[in-house]
């Protein structure tokens, strides 16, 4: 009887996770299908998981300025890679120093790091700092610096470094290892789960950021992918509204692949970043539990 209950509970758990997985996968498949469906077919037949009338018009419209799209991809990839690496380096070094008892004024430094959680200066001071003081407006560094430090990530890494036995650090010092070598050769390799988890979230934040570019970027060569796609969607909405005002609804729909283009931009935006999940999966599960249990 107990064995049957266990089998039934496992079945319920498996079915629950299957349903949750389908709830995540099916919308993505529907988005891909819509992006390859003819616009007229979408209006007449509705959404389908398999295109009734296959068409690449949406992608042709998005890639009509192929040079801009490729340049935006290059900017976004550069900002994401450099920003994520710098974020992980700064976060891990600061978090490690906050866990070492021999650091002078460690408690005051911890309070200074935690202070932004309580008080946030807001957008106006940030704009003045980046444009008037640091003179980073219309530079690629302004896209990087906005997510360079995160108090939450510092606290997460700090809790993880606390789990490293002090005896391990002391053994390295006895063997003649300095602080920098101990950090890079012992502490940092042991923190791969936390680095992978934090790095994934930071990379997604960099990849999806378009607000920073709208505030600080004027040069077309420095526009990231999300900002370019956002501008493309605004242009589609503007052109479609004008077309509907001067022509019939049918003619307006036939002129612009508005719905398909929206879904095509979604595919282009999430395609590269979603490939990170399989690569970091073995670290991601372990990293989610960091700081959940405190001894």
In short:
This protein is mainly α and 295 residues long. Helices cover 76% and strands 0% of the residues. This is Sugar ABC transporter permease.
Describe this structure in words.
With about 300 residues, this protein is mainly alpha-helical. It has two domains: about 1-35; about 65-285, Orthogonal Bundle (MetI-like fold), CATH 1.10.3720. It is built from 16 helices and no strands. Helix 11 (about 190-210) crosses helix 16. The protein is globular and about 75 Å long. About 25% of the residues are buried. Keywords: Cell membrane, Membrane, Transmembrane, Transmembrane helix, Transport. It is found in: Cell membrane. Belongs to the binding-protein-dependent transport system permease family. Pfam families: BPD_transp_1. It is a multi-pass membrane protein.
Q: For the record, what CATH class of the largest domain applies?
A: Mainly Alpha
Number of strands: 0
Q: What is the residue-averaged pLDDT? A: 79
Structural class: mainly alpha
CATH topology of the largest domain: MetI-like fold
Q: Specify the overall morphology.
A: globular
Q: What is the CATH homology-level superfamily of the largest domain?
A: MetI-like
Number of domains: 2
Distance between the termini: 38 Å
Number of helical regions: 16
Strand portion, in percent?
A: under 5%
Low-confidence stretches: 248-254, 287-295
Q: Classify the helix fraction into a percent range.
A: over 70%
* Largest sheet features: none
List keywords for this structure.
disordered C terminus, 2 domains, mainly alpha, membrane, MetI-like_sf, transmembrane helix, MetI-like fold, 295 residues, globular, 0% strand, transport, cell membrane
